[in-house]
Amino acid sequence: MNVRGGEKLMKSYVIFNPAAARGKAGKRWPHVEKELESLHGPFISCFTEAPGHATQLTRKALQEGAEKIIAVGGDGTVNEVVNGWFENDEPIAPEAILSVFMCGSGCDFQRSLTPRSFVKPLPKDDSSGISRIDVGKVTFRDESDGNCIRYCANIASLGLSGEVDRFLIRHPELKRLGGQALFLYATLVQVLSCPQFHLRLLLDDTSEVEIQSRLVAIANGQFFGGGMHVAPGALLDDGYFEVVWLEEMKLLTFLRHLPKVYWGKHIGIPGIQIKHAKKVEVLSQETVWLDIDGESPGKLDALFEILPGCLKIQL
Predict the structure, then answer these.
(1) Whole-prediction pTM value?
(2) What is the second-level CATH architecture of the domain 3-104?
(3) pLDDT, tens digit, for every residue of 68-80?
């Protein structure tokens, strides 16, 4: 039994992505390791070696009895860890705890892990900082039109954001820009060629909307795109998505308002709509790419469903 300060320590695993932040994370590992030990006590280290590896490592760790998993990397690493957490929409280990130590390019999920993102405040006598959050389940089409499922801790979106992801895949040399500058540059480049897609949105099977739009965000968290505060009313534990979309908007109008998104000041601008729903289906006859926690694994048609309170997280 591991004991520190008279307390039993959890069986903890670190899932570390050394390629995060353009490889800088790997160089920082000795420093990160010491900081993690001071925060969490002893742990078993698992280094990722390829895309998708964090999902495999997480699933294996949970099956081996992990009580806490610390995801170390960027938003993509956290997403892979979350995708290793579930089997048939249920946590493999319901009482296991996720903690995140962000050292990637975007770090948008960490930005959302603030008290303003929760309905239920932690009890004042609770020093553990542990809460339960919702997770999104996304069913979509891959590049070969096969059906896929991906879980989403932060934000799923489509249209311009998916085009940005794919642009960055084609131009890995741009990653040297890092963080906010990287995503802003890619957005400005891609918006010039990104059309306004014809989309059909079905919200909770009760409301249907047809729109021309460059972007729709189905948000559990509040931030995406390297610090864009796209869904300032989204809450991680309320059992709903905040659905934000742009209606048909001239390019110059879009560009004029784009800086406001970083501060959440775009809310109330004509042409920006917000709804709340537990289930969202988005359909289109066009090829519209998805973004799920900063990655683009596929395209529409897609179904987004909220899984309430299914993930324990340490803030």
Answers:
(1) 0.93
(2) 3-Layer(aba) Sandwich (3.40)
(3) 999 999 999 999 9
